[in-house]
Give the backbone structure.
Amino acid sequence: MFDLHYWPTPNGHKITMFLEETGLPYRIFPVNINTGEQFNAEFLKIAPNNRMPAIVDHDPVESGPPVSIFESGAILLYLAEKTGQLFSPSLRGRVEVLQWLFWQVGGLGPMLGQNHHFVLYAPQKIPYAVDRYVNETSRLYAVLDKQLADREFIARTFSIADIACYPWIVPHQKQGQDLALYPNVKRWFDTIRARPSTVRAYEKAKSVQAQPAAMTEEARKILFGQNASTVRR
C-alpha cells in the first residue's frame, strides 16, 4: 500500500496516472497547497521541500521501515524500478526514458510553470516575462513534436516519460499554445488522454478538488510569497 500526499496539479497528476496505469493500491492524503497544508510538520517529514506530491511505501523491497519519496520525477523512477513497469529493461531503453524524464523535470515543467505564473497569476503583466516563457513553451512543444515524429510514445513504448510530460500539456490553451501547430504532440496527447488509466486519474482529482478554486490574495501569498524564512520557521 502506498500513501500518496497529493493535490491535483500537473506534478500530482503524474503519480495518480502511474498508480492507475499499474493498478497499485494507494490511498490519497490531500495536501491543499492553497491553504498552506504543505507546511504541516508531518508532511515536511517526508517532503522537506514543502512541495507535493510525496509518497510513502509501506512495503519496500528491502523490507524494514516505510520508505518516503518526494519530487515527482524521483517518485516515478522509484515506482517504475520497484514494479518493473513503464520502464525499459534494456540499457538503451532506460537511457532514452531517463533523458526525457529529466527533460521534463528540468525544462518542460519549470518553464511551463513560469508561463503559468506570468500569464495567469502575476499581479502585474510584464510583457517581457510573458513573451519569454510563452516563446520557450513553444520551443519545448516543438522539441517534443520532433521527438514524436516517428513513434507513438516519447521513448517508443508508453513509459514514465509520457506520464511525466502529459499533465503539463493539458493546459496548453492557457499556455498560449495551439496543438494544431504540433500535430505529433496532438496525436500523442489524444492517445494518452483516452487511456482508461488517465481518465481514472483525472476523476480522482475531482474527488479531491471538485473544481479549481479562485486565486485568493491569501493563496497568492502562500504560493508565491515564500523565501528562506519560510523554510526556517
The domain at 91-194 is CATH 1.20.1050.10 (Glutathione S-transferase Yfyf (Class Pi); Chain A, domain 2). DSSP finds ten helices and four strands in the chain.
